Amino acid sequence: MTNHRLIQAQVNEVTQFATGLAGIMFLLLIGKTIGGMEKNFVNSLLNVDTPESLPVRIPQTKIVTVKCPICGKVIEIHEYNAVTRSEALRRHIEKEHTLKVGLHPQAFMIEGGESVPPQYRDLVCLISEPLPEYSLLTLLPAVEPEVGEKKIDAVLRQLKSGVESIQDSYQFRLFLTTMAKFHDYSIGNQILIMLQMPDATRVAGFNTWKDMGRWVKKGGRGIAILAPVMPRKPKKEEVEEEDEEEIVLSPVHFIVVHVFDISQTEGKPLPEFEVPVLTGEVNDELFARLLDLMKAHGVRVSFEPRPHMDPEIKGQYIHGEIWVRPEEPRAQQLKTLVHEIAHYYSEGVFHIPRRDAETIAESAAYVVGAHYGFDTGVRSFPYVALWAQDKKVLDQNLNSIRQVAATILDDLEKMK
Known about the structure:
Elements: H1 2-46, E1 64-67, E2 74-77, H2 85-96, H3 124-127, H4 151-165, H5 169-181, H6 187-196, E3 203-204, H7 206-211, E4 214-216, E5 223-229, E6 253-261, E7 265-267, H8 284-296, E8 300-302, E9 315-318, E10 321-324, H9 330-349, H10 354-371, H11 384-387, H12 391-414
Helix pairs in contact: 4-6, 5-6, 5-10, 9-10, 10-12
């Protein structure tokens, strides 16, 4: 009797297992049938023919978004192929957060940051300007500091060393060449780019390259620069109407960010960007645009003969008039013209003291020429050693060179 019950129990277990397995197979068959019906239904809606061996792909409908770091608003980018994240964020900040105080939108792209240690406070004036717009969203892991060293200290230590190295004439020429390519970066970040990648031609943040259809190559090491963290913008009700235009916000903290040179990326080509090779050949387009620029500013440019003038004097800027010696070769005339225009900006526009104007004009002329691939043959590189004897004079001259060169380059771009 006992054996009979045991056999009966085993038969029942086998029967239950077989019944369960059959049920599972039936459900799978039903699921496949329904799945096929769904696939045919989707195909009919999309008006596409999908082979049986390929899965149906439903078009991606998820909207790309980006979060504003100021107000926290999530911005939907419905036309992501036509509008990048950086552009959408820039438009939002320009519209919602920069109506009165005149700040650059990119000044708000960085949050957090660290204060500058006392031993590097003298460098703040070199890095206090917001990053250029195309460096938006550049946050990546910071550079590796030494044991016991803060991340910001590692970059500031490198910057301090770079400032001191500019005393060397070759380093100064290299610095001005870097300025010619990155005149919209602060002095300090230009030095950091020069030190880490002297051959860099165009840099941008990781996400900016991604938005342009390019990706940083695997293992690419970013160029560490410093981004200023701007204080909170006062609300409209907190500011008197007559004081709105006078608000000037200065950064109190900085953060280490990384940018990458175009040579460190791959992907969609950027044919519209070309860095000219530095030569001494005449750039006729630059020559013509410089003449048009001076005409727009009401500055007369003369090529009349002056036989009484010392032959060593190639040109002059005096009281709103530029003279260029007509007997000189065309290349020399272009060099002289750029130099005298730099004098006009340094003395006539920014009212820089005459004692520094010659070196500043010569250096700014080199930056402008190098930007267009024309080597002006700067003679003033050795003068920087004299500036470096007084740190304040060095900072002032470097900033004046950038101010003059950047203004000329911006004005030339407007002439297009």
